């Protein structure tokens, strides 16, 4: 009994220490602020973000983008980081109503997530 309990504790601690190792597809806490509009796998208020990394902006089928977003950048690491820091300043006139990610650690985790989410 005791052994099982301690094994559980040790496993829990190991998972806490390595949040990115758990699953590449698991959304980080920072992505909670995106979920109202972005559902992975389908369009909602915002476009489907599955496979967004490396994609030209404004190109998901069936989503009605602003002209600004259609003329936006290709989503590499630098452009995603800039856009998610300051959506309005980076793609002026785009219609995503979001002020930007405030915490640097959330920003890094969300960009890392967008790189792998399919
Ligand atoms: C209030 C709703 C809303 C929130 C919150 C929101 N978005 Fe968006 N997002 C949108 C809309 C709408 C668009 C399309 C903008 C346009 O066409 O001008 C968009 C576009 C994008 C794009 C460009 C996608 C493409 O296909 O070119 C990315 C990347 C993105 N959002 C990421 C995020 C992330 C990451 C978060 C959270 C940190 C977030 N968004 C929060 C509504 C939202």
UniProtKB/TrEMBL annotation:
GO molecular function, one term: metal ion binding
Every Cytochrome c domain range: 7-118
A Pfam entry, by short name: Cytochrom_C
Stretch forming the signal peptide: 1-24
SUPFAM superfamilies referenced in this protein's UniProt entry, alphabetically: Cytochrome c
InterPro entries found in the cross-reference section: Cyt_c-like_dom (IPR009056), Cyt_c-like_dom_sf (IPR036909), Cyt_c_1A/1B (IPR002327)
Recorded superkingdom: Bacteria
Keywords associated with the record: Electron transport, Heme, Iron, Metal-binding, Signal, Transport
PROSITE patterns: CYTC
Protein name as catalogued: Cytochrome C
Species of provenance: Paramagnetospirillum kuznetsovii
């Amino acid at each position: 009994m005791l052994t099982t309990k301690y094994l559980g504790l040790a496993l829990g601690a190991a998972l806490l220490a390595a949040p990115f190792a758990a699953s590449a597809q698991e959304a980080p806490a920072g992505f909670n602020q995106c979920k109202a509009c972005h559902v992975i796998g389908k369009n909602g208020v915002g476009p489907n973000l599955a496979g967004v990394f490396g994609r030209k902006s404004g190109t998901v089928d069936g989503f009605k983008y602003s002209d600004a977003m259609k003329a936006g950048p290709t989503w590499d690491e630098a452009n995603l980081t800039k856009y998610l820091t300051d959506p309005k300043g980076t793609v002026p006139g785009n219609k995503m109503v979001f002020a930007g990610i405030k915490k640097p650690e959330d920003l890094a985790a969300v960009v890392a997530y967008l790189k792998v989410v399919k």
